[in-house]
């Protein structure tokens, strides 16, 4: 298949589905990983898609510009990490809400969340299953937090949890200022195979009162920064994959 034909296929697929994994393109196009990586890089340089870890996402704005807000950049990097038929725990947050835009309509997964806003948002998805974890609501964040929610979470074995950051430090890991929310997030991290931290650069290097997840237990740190930014070197040194 000619390069132009591959490019047209990739763009058509993204227009229909919103996101694509590089491995899936290798199979669909009978092309090598190097060829697909080169195609995605060229299309990204032309401003036709956003290349992210493991694949690409569609640029949805009318002006065809890359996502500009911190939350949308983080969301676009996170969406390709989601796996079909998986169980995902989250306390929500702005980037998780924004991530909805980058998840294809056919995507199947179960999202378990303590956030009222997140549950309402993802209930609009045609194929995802949504479970609202119940307990007393923290009014400022609209998150269910307390012993009942924590106990329910500890009965779950999720494939991943996606947690936003109040503070992230290479020595203390992920921290949280609200004690009740910290207990819910900690239970989610301990009940999941991998933990993904979504952190705006303003929270990097900050330490809140309660530890949620030690740095050695964080699989990914996703920010709006270039992953090569030197401010992220200390996290890479701890074995965290930085996107």
UniProtKB/TrEMBL annotation:
Database matches in InterPro entries: Carb_Metab_HTH_regulators (IPR050313), DeoR-like_C (IPR014036), DeoR_HTH (IPR001034), NagB/RpiA_transferase-like (IPR037171), Tscrpt_reg_HTH_DeoR_CS (IPR018356), WH_DNA-bd_sf (IPR036390)
Keyword Amino-acid biosynthesis: no
Ranges of residues in domain HTH deoR-type: 3-58
Entry-linked PROSITE patterns: HTH_DEOR_1, HTH_DEOR_2
UniProtKB keywords: DNA-binding, Repressor, Transcription, Transcription regulation
Cross-referenced Pfam families: DeoRC, HTH_DeoR
GO-annotated molecular function: DNA binding; DNA-binding transcription factor activity
Superkingdom as given in the UniProt entry: Bacteria
Protein's UniProt name: DeoR/GlpR transcriptional regulator
